[in-house]
Amino acid sequence: MAAKRDTSSGSFTSAMALSEMGLSGVPKRYILPQPQRPAINQRPHCPTTALPVIDLSLLDNPSLRPQVIEQVREACKELGVFQVINHGIQISFTDDALDVAEEFFNLPNEKKMCLASTDVQAPVRYGTSLNHLNDKVQYWRDFIKHYSHPITTWINMWPSEPSSYKTKMGNYAKAAHILHKKLMEVVLESLGLRPDYLQKDTEEGSQVMAVNCYPACPEPNLALGLPPHSDYGSLTIILQNQQGLEIKDSNGEWQSVSLIKEALVVQLGDQLEVLSNGRYKSVIHRAILNSMKQRLSIASLHSMAINKKVIPAPELVDEQHPLSYKEGSFGDFLHFIQDNDILEGRYIDTLKKKPQTGCTKKTAHQAHENVISHSSG
What percent of the chain is modeled with pLDDT above 90? Predict the structure, then answer.
């Protein structure tokens, strides 16, 4: 019997449900405009970029630490992304997290739908696409997102099925939070700032686990799992079981991120671009699909506290590097994505300022004091 093509226009049909139908092609609502298609079968295989692979165990060696800091500096300047090995997270934690994520997405639809929400600020949210109410084109992706720090505040709201979800995902989330703290110290040091710069804001910041499922897609050349975008927060730590992450390099070309055993991908977010006053750039990335395999990824997204206004560090503003960004918060970003299609513009672009003569370190210090006075930390 010939495979059937889905023609429904339901507002919330999961990508997994569509994949399991044995469709001959993707529904029309998933087909991207021609210029935005990955066109996988119409181009040479996307080159796999040799991302810097940084051995974090070398940070403990005083003679090698400067070398690691320099590696991070170059990676942040050139690409905004790197991979880390010997990161301190037990392999059993990463394996368990991927296993229980797969178990969750294999649950009956009605058990997942009880967690569904269109509120981007909901502490636990099951959904499809990106923001399926606003997305003009749907994305071949299902997800469960949940707040994760402090974990004692949020874990009771997490999925109760599978029964091991809270334990297994919780172990990984706690380990990822510890790793984020170490990575932030290294990135800040690479900028010439104190490793404990904004330490309180980092420790009291938010962590959101975005657990993603990209089912096998019948026409991966016409659709995407996630569109090109940057993450708003400080750093995103990505665990994945299949290759499928692509980044845009400094030449505007898409590069496939290789899958390295036991490594984690670290992406710079918009907050670090702002904090660095543009010295570092947040990485634009997307998720492509394939017709044979389901891909799972777990993104641990870290940000300052939801209402913390982030501005360039005064130490990084001078005559050669004038103040280039307005203040913005994670809460502002959530309102932006609630009301806007991600393809129509990035939130960080709304923060960019035109260079102004005389916008020096003194101006940045004044802005810093103003932000401290009215932010909730």
Answer: 69
Cα–Cα distance for residue pair 182/234, rounded to 1 Å: 13
Sheet hosting strand 48-49, strand order edge to edge: 48-49, 254-257, 245-248, 285-287, 226-229
Domain ranges of the chain: 15-307
The rounded percent of the chain whose pLDDT value lies above 70 is 86
The 10 Å Cβ neighbour count of residue 80 is 24
SS3 258: coil
Q: What is the dihedral of CA 184, 189, 191, 194, to 10 degrees?
A: 100
Distance, in Å, from the CA atom of 201 to the CA atom of 39, rounded to the nearest integer, reads 42
Angle between helices 165-190 and 65-78 (to 10 degrees): 90
The string of pLDDT tens digits covering residues 276-331 is 999 999 999 999 999 999 999 999 999 998 888 999 999 999 999 999 999 988 88
Question: Which band of pLDDT confidence, cut at 50, 70 and 90, is reported for residue 247?
Answer: very high
Tokens for 191, please give them. Answer: 């900028």
User: Which residue bears the tokens 């404990």?
Assistant: 196
Quick check: 375 and 328 in contact, CB under 8 A?
no
- Report the alpha-carbon distance of residue 228 to residue 314 in Å, rounded: 31
CATH 2.60.120.330 fits 15-307, yes or no: yes
